[in-house]
UniProtKB/TrEMBL annotation:
PROSITE patterns: VOC. The keyword Metal-binding applies. InterPro entries: Fosfomycin_Res_Enzymes (IPR051332), Glyas_Bleomycin-R_OHBP_Dase (IPR029068), Glyas_Fos-R_dOase_dom (IPR004360), VOC_core (IPR037523), YwkD-like_dom (IPR037478). Pfam families: Glyoxalase. It comes from the Bacteria. Keywords: Metal-binding. This is VOC family protein. The keyword Nucleus does not apply. NCBIfam families: PRK11478.1. It comes from Sphingobacterium daejeonense. Residues 6-129 form the VOC domain.
Amino acid sequence: MLELKGIHHIAIICSNYSVSKAFYTEVLGFEILQEVYREERDSYKLDLALNGQYIIELFSFPDPAERPSYPEARGLRHLAFAVENIEKQVALLNNMGIKTEPIRVDDTSDKKFTFFTDPDGLPLELYEV
């Protein structure tokens, strides 16, 4: 068995770099650790942290292929963020024009959660802890 220590990062390829960069930094509040333009690939790589922890690598590539990203499609189902007050966070998203699903309660944990999407339709979840 491998001796994994944890998850290091999540890599996301976006269709519009400036829109996704603004979403992850200005809406979700990620901190930019490093931004690199790789000329040979015509690609940006943005390293993002949350509360000082490296979490996301945001990439841009010319004409990236489409991929289904609905929660029930094969592959990554969604990326979930822990929050303390889900109603407050949903109100903030909605006030910024970001639609959220109705808040639901997890059948097994009795915790509240909801879904919304990033600018490319990647399903994101808020989960109350």
